[in-house]
Amino acid sequence: KSGQKKVASKASFEIGLVNAKEGEVVTRFPPEPSGYLHIGHAKAAVLNEYFARQYKGKLIIRFDDTNPSKEKEEFQDSILEDLELLGIKGDVISYSSDYFQEMYDLCIKMIKEGKAYADDTTQEVMREQRMDGIASARRDRPVEESLDVFENQMAKGTEEGLKNCIRAKISVDAGNKTLRDPVIYRCNLTPHHRTGDKWKVYPTYDFCCPIVDSIEGVTHALRTIEYRDRNAQYDWMLKALGLRKVHIWDFARVNFVRTLLSKRKLQWFVDQDKVESWSDPRFPTVRGVRRRGMTVEGLRNFIISQGPSKNIINLDWSLIWAINKKVIDPVAPRHSAVVKKDVVEISFADAAPETVEDRPKHKKNPDLGTKKTVFGGKKVLIDQDDAQTLKDGEELTLMDWGNIIVEKIHKNGDLVTGIDAKLHLEGDFKKTEHKVSWLAESDATPCELVDFDHLITKDKIEEGENFEDWLTPETVFKTEALADSNIKNMKVGDIIQFERKGYYRLDQPWSEDKPAVFFTIPDGKVVQKY
Ligand code: ATP
Ligand code: MG
Ligand code: MG
């Protein structure tokens, strides 16, 4: 029972997949290259990989690139890079566009068998008819005519072709509205990022997904549960075309409070310059959360702990950051920093000469090696907040150094402007009330600590609400600080702890003319101090 906490994350997976045989399972992660990978996609990718490995099967990474108006090479490359970052390697990389010819032929087959027809009803009317369960005037169009429209008009992108689409002839008024003659092919004249202008017609998701899954040998198609209504349609397509059946296995989307995961909405923030890029630390993209200090291990642990749950919930970010903290705490080197605004100098009349010593970067993890710490000298710096707690005559401990005795606190109103003190290094640190982090003045190196707020103020944007009405006015909070000079040697991506402050990730390295920039890593506990 004591190990229950640890295995809880694994237990949910014991459910397994229906009809899964070791060595035969094939799963696929099918991103559309229309944006950068976000944390929701990461869940889908990790789950697909998990099942492929669990059953010693195969994982296909398939770019679902059937809509040239939204897709770009840039997105495709970034998705591959991000998957690699997550440690996910497909056994096969494929593209829906590899199957354009097969799908085109299958569409012709469907038309010839009377299972699909060309329809030039306007979009608006079509939507209304589908809502009301009314047949399209074109539903019984002769096969020859539909074929002609598809092959000679739509496929060539003529004006007449552009007015038409192909619809599967499933049902006019089924209770499940996804079965009401869904569109399976439409024209698009935008050049495709892989096939150029070879095609003027493109299959819809509803047609493409089951066909490519079946052709590629997918045994288990993982889909988020909002697609559940579409499962009947998915099965219909395969049956109508005489293709091999695929098992559908649904799982819950992840959503986070005050977070948008729609690529279209994220693109808006990029286009409006509300964020720096898709890698912005306020973005829920894989790049964004990594820049904010999320580790690959933390992200994977989080997804596995969610397991294949079918409940859609609006998760709080503190959950995932708490998991990340467990990963970084034992390995984040510890350093010292003080806030520059109203920093307080402690002056020693009896200063010892300065010494530089090697000290462990992490007292509990000697493997991390040592850092240089400057001791002694005439002045050390402490935070105003700490100075506020001190009293004349008090003996306090400067952490990892020793005790000092406060002789006089200089004030301007409530603000402490300086402290005179004398060293009492041999004093007992167990007896002091205050243990304060500090920095030798000669060692103080400028840096910037940056914290962020969520981009929107509302936990969940409901259907019909516009996210643009809920933008957080201020989302970046910069604090100038001074840190020990070891930060001069840190590289972008280094994760450290500033003692008694929190965890930080270096985003811009220190240089002679620019301070180092650190991003605050939420630890899931401290309520951020905006
Ligand atoms: P968007 O609507 O933001 O464009 P999408 O779902 O259409 O997202 P895809 O690139 O088609 O984006 O998604 C690839 C895979 O990731 C799909 O299998 C999809 O179900 C899954 N996925 C997308 N968002 C989430 C989410 N929030 N939680 C879990 N899985 C998700
Ligand atoms: Mg999609
Ligand atoms: Mg979508």
Concise description?
This protein is α/β, with parallel strands linked by helices and 530 residues long.
Account of the protein in words:
Helix 2 crosses helix 12 (296-306) and helix 12 (296-306) packs across helix 13 (317-328). Strands 12-25-26-27-23-24-13 form a seven-stranded mixed beta sheet, with no helix packed on it. It has a seven-stranded mixed beta sheet with strand order 21-18-19-20-14-17-22. Among the domains are: 108-203, Glutamyl-tRNA Synthetase, Domain 3 (Glutamyl-tRNA Synthetase, domain 3, Alpha-Beta Complex); 334-521, Ribosomal Protein L25, Chain P (Beta Barrel). Mean pLDDT is 93; it is low at 1-12. The chain is of the alpha/beta class. The protein has 14 helices and 27 strands. Bound molecules: adenosine-5'-triphosphate (ATP) and magnesium ion (MG) (2 copies). The site of adenosine-5'-triphosphate has 16 residues, from helix 2 and strand 8.
